Amino acid sequence: MGFFKKIFSKEKKEKLDSGLQKTKEGVWSKITRAVAGKSKVDDDVLDNLEEAFITSDVGVDTTLKIIDRIQERVARDKYVNADELNNLLCEEITDMLARPENETDNLEDFEVKKTGEPYVIMVVGVNGVGKTTTIGKLAAQYKKAGNKVVLGAADTFRAAAIEQLDIWGERVGVPVIKQKMGSDPAAVAFDTLSSAKAQGADVVIIDTAGRLHNKIGLMNELTKIKNVMKRVVPSAPQEILLVLDGSTGQNAFEQARQFVAATEVNALAVTKLDGTAKGGVVIGISDQFRIPVKYIGIGEGIDDLQIFRPDEFVRSLFLSKDN
Fold first, then answer.
1. 20-56 burial, b for 16+ CB within 10 Å, e for fewer?
2. At what angle do helices 281-289 and 310-318 cross, to 10 degrees?
3. What pTM does this model have?
4. From residue 258, how far is each of 124, 246, 273 by CA, in Å?
5. What pLDDT, in 10s, does the model give residues 209-241?
6. Are 253 and 284 in contact (CB under 8 A)?
């Protein structure tokens, strides 16, 4: 099984290619224009590349870093023609992206280590980014991988959030621990972990409020939730997952800045990549915050949440289907 574990299936690759099509078309057209009529990568090509990446929402700082890397390669290799540029971009950009600390663990997708205690994911992010949908899809994928999953509705600020999570729990077939709107979110998290531990659950996913109007209040609330969970599972939460809407481009950078300042985010999920040409934001956010993108949303289907593989993502953007 180990040999086949990390192989990217043809079906997943086709979904990834399809989900990134709008971004790919935008990036490809800009790079094609950048190298049109050129036999080598010169200063004009690099200037045009810089513009192409910035307008694809990669971000200024990351774009300049990419250009510096390409310049170094061109200087070192003496001659690089325009046809080789995409392969060069793949190598350098893949090397830049943050990787999960446990990437080399001998685990299948959505498999977790059995430690006797549940693997706890605390999900944060502003309203409207697809947070609840991401939680539902995560629950479905973790359950499909053979895990016992429990959800916690700790976003008690909005009644709709509790209702939405309830609907996903019924759809996926996993229990949702909840209280009434306005309840203490930390109390919901405590009840969820206590129930999950009693049930022998493998994975717990905790929803949290998505408001950012008061960063001090948000920070205090998230810290309280974390501290209360540690009373039940000392290692919890093992994952603090920030959900970002890829279609918002540079706004996603600002959301990431605020949540990284508010809590110890150690994983990212970037959603709605199938409906946007701004997929380059994944590259910029991963590079700038040095927090690994762990999941990407590339469609509306329940299986259209994929484990993020930097090499496959970059190849899908910059190489033809035959490469």
1. bbbbbebbeebbeebbeeeeebeeebbebbbebbbeb
2. 140
3. 0.90
4. 11, 16, 21
5. 887 655 667 778 889 999 999 999 999 999 999
6. yes
